[in-house]
Amino acid sequence: MKDTSAEGDVRQIEPASPGQPNRLPGGRLDRATTLPFTFDGKAYSGHPGDTLASALLANGVRLMGRSFKYHRPRGPLTAGSEEPNALVELRSGARREPNTRATTAELYHGLVATSQNRWPSLRFDAMAINDRLSPFLTAGFYYKTFMWPASFWEKLYEPIIRRAAGLGALSMKPDPDEYDKGFKHCDLLVIGSGPAGMMAALTAGRSGADVILADEDFEMGGRLLSETFSIADQSGADWAAQTVAELSSLPNVRLMPRTTIIGAFDHGIYGAVERLGDHLAQPAQGTPRQVLWRLTTKRTILAAGATERPIVFNNNDRPGIMGAAALRTYANRFAVTAAPRVAIFTCNDDGHRSAADLHAKGVKIAAVIDTRPDAPRATDYEVLAGAKVTDTRGRLGLTFAEIALADGAARTIEVGALGMAGGWNPNVHLTCHQRGRPVWDDAIAAFVPGGTLPPGMVVAGAAAGALSTHGALSQGAEAASAAVSELGNRTDPDNLPEAEDAPVAQTPFWYVTGADRAWLDQQNDVTVKDVKLSHREGFRAVEHLKRYTTLGMATDQGKTSNMAGLAIMAELAGKTIPGLGTTMFRPPYTPVPIATFAGRIKGRAFHPTRLTPSHYWAKEQGAVFVEVGNWLRAQWFPEPGETHWRQSVDREVAATRASVGICDCTTLGKIDVQGTDAAVFLNLIYANGFAKLPVGRVRYGLMLREDGIALDDGTAARLAEDHFIVTTTTANAGKVYQHMEFVRQCLVPDLDVQLISTTEAWAQYAVAGPNSRALLRKVVDPAFDISNEGFPFMACGEVTICGGLRARLFRISFSGELAYELAVPARYGDALMRRLMAAGQDFDVTPYGTEALGVMRIEKGHVAGNELNGTTTAANLGLGRMVSKKKDCIGSILSERDGLNAPDDLRLVGLKPVDPSAKITAGGHLMATDGPVDAAHDQGYVTSAAFSPTMGSMIGLAFLRRGADRLGERLRLVSPLTDLTVEVEICSAHFVDPEGVRLRA
Amino acid sequence: MHDLTPITALGGSAARSDTIAGLTLTERPDVALASVAARLGQETATRAAVGTLIGTEAPGPGHLAGGEVRAFWIGPDQWMIEAPFATHENIATILRAVTGPAASVTEQTDAWTRFDLSGEDLVPVLELLSNLDHRRMASGHATRTTIHHLGCYLVRSAANTASIYGPRASAGSLHHAILGAMGAGL
User: Fold this and answer.
1) End-to-end CA distance of chain B
2) Model confidence, pTM
């Protein structure tokens, strides 16, 4: 290093890397490798170990962005994740990511970065006119200014404001990278790898505990990487490296660098974002760029460190004005100075440490401006005790600082960088994620973690307010010893390395009196003036202050701004800062891409799908599929020449009613019910009786909820005295199974009954139509009598088919035709469908989909999900008599409630249009043919509607007041939303074969 | 003998096998499966019958036991029994002959699809799939877990093999999710 005393006022710094004028010696860089990169199209170079911010500073670039509202030139304020200013767009094309902090972006070969929120260029930004208009753009200006006319807000004002103010822009292209989610478990999670976290991980790791040490940085060591003092007779950074090496050798310790713990959730669960590919031009094929981990922990030590607070004075936001400790980090770790001449503005001893470290690196210290009259002296540079920075100059970066000296005299000094040392705020954020409130510590004039932490969490080191290295190491060791001993491990108590330990006192100095155009929240452009305005207009509570001024609401969540805002409001309101309180910290700790929350759960993999056993066959037929829950069901099977779905559906209905059709009904829930009390159990579950159902017979059943409303309908088939198969609707399969398990385990644990789902175990096909028996005779083995006498309507039984395959046959009908359902083990479902189609050629067999199924059940007047809509009773459905009063059932008593049994209750009816060409729409309401159309005159509503090829017109099912007594009456069907009015006639819901002759044929 | 040709859960005529980064995922249609649940008051008899079926003591919660015919615990006094499909296609009948009326037996063969994941270190793959403490799940452990929103069973039959049982109808989705985790390179 050069002798500084012989130099002139502005010393030349020996460029340690060519083309990087502000590069200093030393640092934690791999200088043997040079990394080219571009910023706003201009080429620069840096080294591995640089961030984008450090590399730009090394290249003499201080200006990195424009501010949110006033478009003021901005450079980095910090050297870490708390950065409010140096936000850039990283990468290009579809990989472009806006609002990325240059201070955390790891430099890589070929990195492309672009400044944002400026036009046409960063150096000349036309929108900087806003800065001149600032008197009109104060907090809440748009609420006051753009009031009239109201309709202009959405169409005109908001788009203009959004364009003028804001951050970066998305690429609007699909993100080409993979993201993932995963789960890890550990005994002890240590958050942060500074001295406290490192010592905690070491103590716990040596005890054999299962430890995860996570740090958001790409190099472990935290603040140790930025400091020059020693631990155990070596530099802090060397001690950190040695400790990392030891931790890496322990099989029970997992190190997770580049991993931010974003939130503390219930039961010791933490969210962690691991950035696997952000330091690469693009991640390796298949490898996720980021992983969102759910960490399940038994104990957690929060060693998140502290954030240096700035000091507020006029024009304190120029590029080059930074945290003093950030300047120290840039010098010691990244071997960079923001400028050759630097001044430090401080109110505590830590600012002097920055000055000394920068000086030692050969940076000229123009002055240390210390607000304290008793400031410590220095021999190498001037210390101005009792002085303050009152203003600054410099259009695109700091050039001069104006200082008020202790005696009132003014002095202007020429500097390219100014470090602000306002003291340190413990990073308490994660302690507050479960509504814990921090408490005020007068000794360091800062909030420290409060008494109610997330269960299992302890805080150590600077995050707990212990601001000396010794304090951090000893608290880390103590916290780890306590945590692992609770988990049954033992630790060695005497392994604490020696480190500096001076009592740390912080005297608060928040802002320079008279400051107005002085920035608190640099990211949201909130000034002292805005806080004063908020106070004057009555928004004085801390939460109101935040919403009115937007202080602390940006992507940095006010990590560098909240305290000063609170201090100013407290002073104006005549309160103390703890008296004013804090706003609530919530996850995530730092911004997380939405893609990371999504992981692989996107596009076609957004949710799992369920394929029916005939899926591959149906796909070959060109079936059109519909999602029913996770199931993909064939909706209809278009044939050549059919151009409209109605043509396909009408044909499928007509062909089934004329001969035979096949439909995959595997999706209906199937629950195997066994046990000596199975019949007693079903008698309780169903509203109607099941105790006396003979073996070999099926019965239709209706289930009620406890409150008397219909839950689901289906059938139960009795295969043996102690064995039933219950079927449910597709949509309610899970819900009914859950309900039955609840009843079994909680209400009737003394009954002998066992349940298990077999929905997917069996492929089940409905074979419906007058020729269904004839078709089945070709596959069911001849040993089984399926004649009308041998196997009548509602019969069931185990059979074999195609020469011996075990199968189940049920004679049930949803379509109203002679119909069966045939089930085989799912792996044979594909083959059975092909066999049935081949065997049915003689009968012009037709596969039909869910649309034809729906049409036929509406024609038959069978209820489905549209009618079982969670508001309807058995009586509404016309099934009131099914609620047997000869026995108890779930929902029986409450179905007798007054409210469910009014004289003018809804009843299920059929509808047909008076004009057969008219339309009937589900969701339409029924009104008298004359009179007003409003809720007061509402008589009922349509639940299901379809074109009936059998009836030759549209038909519908509806709930109508006193419906059962109104057959033949004419009403108006209205749908004001779709502007529809149709005259309809009320009829029976059973349009086809009301006597049930066909299904018994 | 019937003449219907089965397909696998992934829709193929033969079991599918994929190898990525030294890990292999194999579809296993060659196993038959049935649940055995003790009837009320028949818990001891059922436990003994399960022991007879698998040739060793019935496994407790979270565990797997047995050899060619093996059982894993799926609920209080309830087990899933696994056996070779070739010899046990009619597994419910075979088991019922041993349990008698002490237990309810239900065929589950095609309710599930089994995928075997094998390779040197399965933990990085399993950690992306399921919220179990996979580093502590030793051979002989079996438990219920959620993978890609699907209720599954994870059976650790050997240190380098994990059998994943998922719902058959969602075999394709499950397979896609496991392959994705295998290819993540973690």
Assistant:
1) 48
2) 0.94
* Whether A604 contacts A615, CB under 8 Å: no
Length of chain A: 1001
Strands (E), A629-753: 631-636, 661-664, 669-674, 698-704, 710-720, 723-728
What is the domain extent for residue B90? 31-109
Residues of chain B contacting residue A185, judged by C-beta atoms under 8 Å apart = 133, 135-136
CA distances from A517 to A313, A391, A525, A706, A876 (A): 8, 10, 10, 65, 70
- Name the residue of chain A whose CA is nearest to B168's CA: A760
**Which residue, chain included where needed, has tokens 């740390």?**
A504
* Class of the domain covering A33-174: alpha beta
Which of these CATH numbers, 3.40.1080.10, 3.50.50.60, 3.40.50.11540, 3.40.50.300, describes A179-307+426-486? Answer: 3.50.50.60
Rounded distance between C-alpha atoms, residue B8 and residue B15, angstroms: 7
Residues in Cβ contact with B170 at an 8 Å cutoff, skipping those fewer than 6 apart: A608, A609, A610, A611, A630, B150
pLDDT at position A147 is 63
β-partners of residue A269 are A265, A296
Query: A124 versus A348: which is more confidently predicted?
Result: A348
Strand order in the sheet with A388-393: A388-393, A400-404, A410-414
Q: Which of A178, A601, A633, A754 to mutate against chain B (most B CBs within 10 Å)?
A: A754
A852, A656 in Cβ contact below 8 A? yes
Per-block average pLDDT, block size 10, for chain B (186 residues)? Answer: 96 97 97 98 98 98 97 98 98 98 98 97 96 95 97 95 98 97 92
Rounded Cα distance between B168 and B163, Å, is: 14
Q: What is the mean pLDDT of residues A595-607?
A: 92
Contacts of A759 in chain B (CB under 8 A): 111
Closest residue in B to A666 (Cα) is B169
Q: Are strands A230-231 and A846-847 parallel, antiparallel or unpaired?
A: unpaired
Counts for chain B of helices (H) and strands (E), in that order: 5, 11
ipTM of the predicted structure?
0.98
Residue length of chain B: 186
Q: Do A825 and B186 touch (CB under 8 A)?
A: no
* Rounded Cα distance, A988 and B8, in Å: 47
Angle A574-A580-A582 (CA atoms, 0-180°, nearest 5)?
150
Helix/strand number for chain A, H first, E second: 22, 50
Rounded Cα gap, residues A92 and A644, in angstroms:
45
Residues B117 and B167 occupy one common structural domain? yes
CATH superfamily entry for domain A1-8+315-422 = FAD/NAD(P)-binding domain (3.50.50.60)
Q: How many angstroms separate the CA of residue B168 from the nearest CA in chain A? A: 6
Of chain A, the percentage scoring pLDDT greater than 90 comes to 86
- C-alpha to C-alpha distances, A272 to A202, A258, A267, A295, A780, nearest whole angstrom: 21, 10, 15, 7, 58
Find, in chain B, the residue whose alpha carbon is nearest to that of A185: B133
Distance of CA A969 to the CA centre of its chain: 53
Residue A5: pLDDT band by 50, 70, 90 thresholds? Answer: very low
Whether the CB-CB separation of B180 and B168 falls below 8 Å is answered with no
Query: What does the pLDDT read at residue A165?
Result: 64
Which sequence spans correspond to the domains of chain A? 1-8+315-422, 33-174, 179-307+426-486, 509-575, 608-667+762-869, 668-758+871-898, 902-1001
Residue A342 in this model has a pLDDT that exceeds 80: yes
Residues of A in contact with B141 (CB under 8 A): none
* CB pair distance less than 8 Å for A287 and B184: yes
Residues 6+ apart with CB under 8 A from A416: A62, A320, A338, A339, A340, A341, A342, A397, A398, A399
- Give me A146's structure tokens: 């753009």
